[in-house]
Amino acid sequence: MVIKRFYYTMKFNNNQSFVTSWSGGKDSCFALMEAVKLNGKPKVLMNMMNENGLVSRSHAIPEKILHQQAIELGLPMITVPSTWNDYERNFINTLRQLVEEYEINSAVFGDIDFDSNRAWEEKVCEAAGITPILPLWKQDRKDLVIKMLAEGLHCVIVSCNQQLGEGFLGKKLDDDLINRLEELDADVCGENGEYHTLVVNCPLYRNELNVEFLAKRKHNNYWFLEMKLKP
């Protein structure tokens, strides 16, 4: 099977249905938004959790909040507990299951410019017999963040490195915060691991998420913000 590789902006084919590799943060959300604008048909969201299945990897977003994001998007959410050692195998097996259950033929990813990430996505999609689509690929990082904000994406920093520190947790990404990140010589898009976000609202949501932010925790030199849905 020949897998077509689409990295740049394009129109989807009429039958192009997809799963979104969903982190809960800005890049995966905006990739979904862009794919929908390009006439893609979203069928399902997929998130890789830590091994106990309680929170997502990297962002540490609780499963209930991920599912609430899916509810607001009107899409099903598949969460997959996994160790790092089993990550790739579980990712591929889940993609194959989604192909059968949801009749998808492509997967949307929010990566921007790391060739190693793109190569991995090509690999897992080829194993599942579907097409990888990267709507944000090779866009300028700062321009991309500004575009996200201009198009109505609202997100909050929920994890960050020591360069930023715990004071950035819970901050809304806006023009002032972009300026502060630049003053610290941090990548404004967080592509070098400076920070991760939770999307609390976007044009595809039915309602804004109602989230309470709790304690700040440090784990392996990285800061995380605990959170829960408000009643």
Automatic annotation (TrEMBL):
UniProt GO BP: protein histidyl modification to diphthamide
Annotated source species: Sporocytophaga myxococcoides
All copies of domain Diphthamide synthase, residue ranges: 21-228
GO molecular function terms attached to this record: diphthine-ammonia ligase activity
Ranges in coiled-coil conformation: none
Protein name listed in UniProt: Diphthamide synthase domain-containing protein
Source domain of life: Bacteria
InterPro entries: Diphthami_syn_dom, DPH6/MJ0570, Rossmann-like_a/b/a_fold
